[in-house]
Amino acid sequence: MPGGAWARCGAAAPPDPADPRPAAGFTLVELIVVLILMGLATALVAPSLLPGPTDPDASLQRVLADAQAAAIRRGEPVLVEVGVRGEWTARGASSGETDAVLGRGGLAEAWVPPHPYVLRIAPTGSCGMELAADTTGWRPPLDLLTCRVVS
User: What is the largest CA-CA distance in the chain?
Assistant: First the structure.
């Protein structure tokens, strides 16, 4: 009877010491090495998948960079209007007519101004600022030549 008692109970026959083929499967050392490599790969990739710390300057800088790109692409100024609750709206500023809204959103709380203001971003990338009459010396910390946030 081939396989004897092993075949009757459904288990595989014990390995034959005379068989030159190695046994199928992985050794414990191989499994441990693979687990260590997977752990290292996870440790290297995980930080790029998790959200980083939020920089309040980044919210205004992102709005300005997008508005600069739109002004350059359109070849005309773009107005970014910032309200006292931090809401902003970007519009095209073509020859007196009101263009459609290019974008809107909200700034981080650190950038909520005490007074509303309007930034006029030229197709060259520089900024001009229009402040309300009652600003009493307040200005957002921006470099108007490069239209970048200065800390």
Answer: 104
Tens-digit pLDDT profile for residues 34-78: 999 999 999 888 877 776 656 666 777 888 888 888 888 888 888
Contact between 137 and 114 (Cβ < 8 Å): no
For residue 7, the tally of other CB atoms under 10 A from its CB is 12
Concatenate the DSSP letters of all residues of 92-112 into one string. Answer: E--TTS-PPEEEEEE--GGG-
Structural contact between residues 149 and 61, judged by C-beta atoms closer than 8 angstroms: yes
> What is the pTM assigned to this prediction?
0.56
For residues 104 and 100, what is the distance between their CA atoms, to the nearest angstrom? 11
Check the CA dihedral 52-57-60-63 and report its sign: negative
Cα separation, 73 vs 67, in Å, equals: 10
Q: How far is CA 59 from the centre of its chain?
A: 11
In angstroms, the Cα distances linking 4 to 10, 11, 18, 19, 22 are 11, 11, 18, 18, 23
Whether the CB-CB separation of 146 and 121 falls below 8 Å is answered with: no
